[in-house]
Amino acid sequence: MDERVILGAECLAEGMAWLSERDVKMAEAYALTGPLPLRLKPDGFGALLSAIVSQQVSVASARAIWDRLGEAGCGRPEAVDRLSEDALRALGLSRQKAAYAKALAGARIDYEALRALPSADVIRILTAVKGIGLWTAEIYAMFSLGRADVFAHGDLALQEAARVLYGLKARPGAAEMRAMAAHWAPWRAVAARLLWAYYKEIKDREGSL
Questions:
Q1: Which regions in the chain score pLDDT beneath 50?
Q2: Top-tier CATH class for 45-144
């Protein structure tokens, strides 16, 4: 696996310098946002289970459910395997999420091996698991594995940030975002961090008006 991996702030700075040199709009956005957050997270089963827990619930609700799962030892697939779906529901998961948690535990993913695989293979393996969609797999590759050239094309905040930054008439869809992001390779994950930071800036400005 010869893909770049983001290890620290120096990598972000290198990627941002590359993007700024080639795209004046990226440079303008960076002047507004300043240094980008690293946002790296641990990898493994717990990271994906946490992503499932967080789907379509508030941050506070997700944290409360995750705390209960942690107390039950559910950060490991073996523990989830031992529990029934009803037991998982008693810890706060919906029926659907309990099924997803069981599917993830039963998938027996080799998380250490994922670190050495190309991002396309990582995303293919993860999205084969019930409950793991493309966005979740891309986010895992970007932040749990630190891949420098992955982008979440279907992310609404990224799409809206691109619309505003590039003066587009309508918010680009996933296919349009894929075409736009191709120009940011091999630093698409840095471009994503910039657009998320830019989105926060424009939303904060709207709130202050």
A1: 209
A2: mainly alpha
